[in-house]
Amino acid sequence: MVRAGVTAARLTEAAALMADEIGIDKVTVSALARQFGVKDASLYSHVKNLRELRVRVALLSGEEMTDRIAVAVAGRSGKEALVAFADAYRDYALAHPGRYAASQMRMEPEEVAGSVGLRRSVELTYGMLRGYGLTDPDLTDAARLLRSTFHGYIHLELSGGFAHSREVRESWSRSLDALHVLLTNWPTRPEGNA
């Protein structure tokens, strides 16, 4: 690669591509420096350290996935929105496993402060769940349920954890049917419990 034109944005994109190829945990500043044909030290004028680079990949990935979900759920509600949301989420994770893994890492509040993509992701999730008549704190509980269900399923799928002969896509579809029933019949809290 040519030395000219190294920017934080180009480094982030290159790291994201590398993450999909070899995994986010194997992305290093040295590997990127080799790809760009520069010394490691020259990249530190664009990113502070490896952690910042990985956070940048996580935020980029979150924005990309949110963009896909937004397009998928536009004009939809209820089960149709849930399925569109879930399918866009899963499709992104399967197509970009390294980026998806980066998007799941824990980030500190100061690392994500001002992230429009993260805020938009929360708004899309809550907006879809409001279609089921949920309000806080049930919105938060339901969002956590969906994220953990989607992530667990995708993690098992990506790692080859589903060995049964039943088609994985069919089980995914049935899981979404079950989530729709649950969201439609969300349990009420006893009076006084929040």
Automatic annotation (TrEMBL):
A UniProt-annotated Pfam family: TetR_C_33
Name this polypeptide is given: WHG domain-containing protein
SUPFAM superfamilies according to UniProt: Homeodomain-like, Tetracyclin repressor-like, C-terminal domain
Entry keyword annotation includes ATP-binding: no
Keywords for this protein: DNA-binding, Transcription, Transcription regulation
Residue span(s) of domain HTH tetR-type: 5-65
Organism: Streptomyces solicathayae
Location of the DNA-binding region in this protein: 28-47
